[in-house]
Amino acid sequence: MANFHTLDYDQVSRLDDILTQPISIDGCGNFPSLEVRPHEFVNSILKRLMVHDVELHDVRLNGSAASFALGGHEAPTYHDIDVIFRVKMDDQDEMDKVKQIVLDVLLDSLPDDVVKDKLTDTTLQVAYVRKMVKVIHEGDCWSLISLYNNDGKNFELKFVDHMRRKFEFSVDSFQIILDSMLEHYKSSCYEMCRNIFPTVIGESVYGDFASALSHLKNRYIVTRKPEEIRGGGLLKYCNLLVHGFVPLDTDHLRTLERYMCSRFFIDFADVQTQWQKLQSYVADHFIGEDHHKLEFLKTLYNVIGNST
Known about the structure:
The chain is α+β, with helices and mostly antiparallel strands. The protein has helices at 9-20, 38-51, 63-71, 92-109, 121-128, 179-187, 209-218, 234-242, 253-267, 271-285, 290-307; strands at 4-6, 23-25, 34-36, 56-62, 81-87, 129-137, 140-147, 155-162, 174-177, 201-204, 220-221, 246-247.
C-alpha cells in the first residue's frame, strides 16, 4: 500500500494553473483589493519564516484544489486555495510569530500609494483576515488564517505542528508537496512541457493513494472513524451526496450516518451554534450553486431524520 504518488504532466499542469492564476484578497471598507499569485504570496511567507528562524518541514496544497489538480474534471470544482505550512510551532509565541509574518506579507502586498507606516496589525487583520483559528490541545497544535475574498474563494493558510485528524473523507485526503514547484518559480530558466517539468509528490493522508484517487474519480464516499472528525463530517457528507457521490460501504451506511450525526450534536450542542455553523458552511461551500443549497438542506434533514 503506497500513500504517495508522483504527479504526471497533466496533474502538474493543473497544479501550475492553481498556483499562478491571480486571486483577489479583498479588503473591507476602503481598503483596496490585493491581486496576488498564490506561489508568490507563499514564497514571500517562506522567506520571512526563514528570517525569523521558524523551522519548516514542507509546504502542501490541501483540500478541494489538491483534489482538482489530481482528478481534473472528475473532481468537484474547487473554491478555496488551502495551503499547509508544516512548521515547528509548539506554543502561543510561535503562533503569534507566524501570524505576524502573514500580516507583514499582506502589508508588503499593498499598493505603493498606501501610507503603510500608519497601519497597525489590528487594522490589517480587520481589513483582510476573514477568520483566524488557533488550536493548542492534546493531539493538535495548529493555526488557520483565512483571507477575505468577496466571491467566497478564500485563500487559507494553515500552519501545522501536529494535527490529530488530517482528513474527513478519502476524497479530501490529498496533500500535494509544493516545494519543487515553489523552487521552480523562483529559479527555473525553463518553461514546463511534457518532456520536462518538476517532480511533484502527492500524499493521501487517508492511506492508499490509488484507492483514494479511485474513490475521487468514481465519486465514492469512504472514511475511517467518523466519530473522530470535528463535527462528525456530517455537512461535508451531505455536500458530497448533493454532488453525486455515493457511499461505497452501503452495509454500514446507517452506522456511519449515526456516528456523524452524534458527533455533530456533541460539537454543536445548542440551536444557535448549529445555525451559525450551517449558515457559514452554506455560504462558504455553495458559491454560484444556489440550485444546490435547497437540495443540501433537504439531504441534511433526511440524514438527521433517519439517524436520530
